[in-house]
From TrEMBL:
Gene3D superfamilies: Glycosyl hydrolase domain, family 43. This is Glycosyl hydrolase family 43 protein. It comes from Crotalaria pallida (Smooth rattlebox). InterPro entries: Glyco_hydro_43, Glyco_hydro_beta-prop_sf. Keywords: Glycosidase, Hydrolase, Membrane, Transmembrane, Transmembrane helix. Signal peptide: none annotated. The chain crosses the membrane at residues 21-38. One of its GO terms (biological process) is carbohydrate metabolic process. PROSITE patterns: PROKAR_LIPOPROTEIN. It holds the Pfam family Glyco_hydro_43. PANTHER family: GLYCOSYL HYDROLASE 43 FAMILY MEMBER (PTHR22925), GLYCOSYL HYDROLASE FAMILY PROTEIN 43 (PTHR22925:SF3).
């Protein structure tokens, strides 16, 4: 009779003792597995938690991690079509990227707000100060639009000042020939200084174009793009690396310039095809141990190359690794967090915006894993176009480990001098929400997120000086 009342699960246990031994064995194994999992997660996530904790101490940081949504209506196509015409040829659907590239689009003001929305840092007061407005015109302390496109920032320890360098493009946009891309003659590298990362003083053009000598790399009708400056602790020199090209982008080289001060003037030393390869979009990255690296798109933009610079940062060494092979990425922006290297890249679509990817690696030489699109908020198309911008640099905020500023360019191919800056908070924290592209392993890397904000500011206490 008793057997009739046994629960069905007990029916596969013929002998009570055998059942309890296997149950104990399974529980021990289960515990060991959980312990293993926990110790692995703890190894990295412990650090992540620290970031989240630190961030959560600052309510404004929490705010910055909120997804801000955006709703843009695509206007109906210009001109009415008769029903017969509509039948003959199907209407081409207009995408927001088409609207973005069309200088006569009625949505122009959405991407390139006009002068009415200019934020003058010197006149902004009270609650409205220190806000970044991605996509608006940003003025320097003289009231002129900042010209530092495709740029990057150097923090100068000696003067406790930030220096922002970039392409000074304040000239007319034209096409060198029918098939040529939109361009502005080289004017030089613009330099701006700031203590607060918000108020920018123009320090002048720290590396100027060559006006007469047509064979010079910096001859005005050539190309100088993406200048980046790093400081060499051994030589005490400021070293600038930049993309050097001709108007058709066939020279595909990198140039180097040097200065005794962060505010120039920089002395141009020459160009080369690094490691014997073509080199277009590029950046430099100075690691914690003082070793600096050149990272450039190569093999016709089909892959990236990474190689250490010589000790004086003036040349490449013979060491080079090919990474992201066949992935066609450009606009690399490297940064490091808790021993892991991260990189934001764009696709290759000229001045038109496209989808960003975040990548991570344990060694700077790779293997680099793609971790998906880091953009959060806005709307789907905003996320698929990096908020209509292209990465150029990622600036760490040292007081908040895991917090960075993504610097990106919203190019305006109709008028390149009026290209805008899209700076947004970039946070490394939290688990990945999609599997890695090339590895089936359980990844312990943290997620990289770039949060869209119509306006935002750095949390109080971010500064190094306080
Ligand atoms: C995309 C690059 O990222 C830019 O720096 C610039 O070279 C444009 N292409 C030119 O079309």
């Amino acid at each position: 009779m008793r057997n009739l009342y046994r629960k069905p699960t007990n029916l596969h246990c013929n002998a009570g003792s055998r059942c309890s031994i296997s149950a104990v064995l399974w529980s021990v194994l289960g515990c060991l597995f959980l312990l293993h999992l926990y110790s692995n997660i703890d190894h990295k996530d412990g650090k992540v938690e620290e970031v989240q904790l630190r961030s959560s101490l600052h309510p404004q940081f929490r705010e910055l991690q909120q997804a801000e949504l955006l709703n843009i209506q695509i206007p109906s196509p210009k001109g009415k079509r008769s029903p017969r015409a509509a039948k003959r040829r199907p209407k081409r659907t207009t995408t927001l990227v088409d609207e973005f590239m069309d200088e006569n689009s009625p949505l122009r003001h959405v991407f390139f707000p006009g002068n009415k929305s200019v934020v003058d840092p010197m006149k902004a007061a009270g609650n409205d100060s220190y806000y970044y407005y991605p996509g608006r015109v940003w003025l320097d302390t003289d009231g002129n639009p900042i010209q530092a496109h495709g740029g990057g920032i150097l923090y100068d320890e000696k003067s406790r000042t930030y220096y922002w360098y970039g392409e000074y493009k304040d000239g007319p946009t034209y096409h060198a020939h029918k098939k040529g891309t939109a361009r502005v003659d080289i004017i030089g590298v613009g330099c701006y200084s700031s203590k607060d990362l918000w108020t920018w003083k123009h320090e002048g053009i720290v590396l100027g174009a060559e006006e007469k000598n047509e064979t010079h790399d910096l001859y005005k009708s050539d190309v100088l793009e993406r200048p980046k400056v790093i400081y060499n602790d051994n030589t005490g020199k400021y070293v600038m690396w930049m993309h050097i090209d001709d108007a058709n982008y066939t020279k595909a080289a990198v140039g180097v310039a040097i200065s005794d001060t962060p505010y120039g003037p920089f002395n141009y030393l020459g160009s080369q095809r690094p490691h014997g390869y073509d080199s277009r979009d590029m950046t430099v990255f100075k690691d914690d141990d003082g070793v600096a690296y050149l990272i450039y798109s190569s093999e016709n933009n089909s892959e990236l190359h990474i190689g250490p610079l010589t000790e004086d940062y003036l040349n490449v060494t013979s060491v080079m690794r090919r990474v992201l092979i066949g992935q066609r990425r450009e606009a690399p922006a490297l940064f490091k967090h808790q021993g892991t290297y991260y990189m934001i890249t764009s696709g290759c679509t000229g001045w038109a915006p496209n989808e960003a990817l975040a990548h991570a690696a344990e060694s700077i030489f790779g293997p680099w894993e793609a971790m998906g699109n880091p953009c959060v908020g806005g709307n789907k198309l905003f996320r698929l176009t990096t908020f209509f911008a292209q990465s150029t640099f990622v600036l760490p905020l040292p007081r908040f480990p895991g917090s960075f500023i993504l610097m990106a360019d919203r190019w305006n191919p109709a008028d390149l001098r009026d290209s805008r800056y899209v700076w947004l908070p970039l946070i490394v924290a939290g688990p990945l929400d999609q599997p890695l592209q090339h590895s089936f392993e359980f990844s312990l890397w943290s997620k990289v997120s770039i949060y869209w904000h119509r306006k935002w500011r750095l949390p109080q206490g971010w500064s190094r000086f306080k």
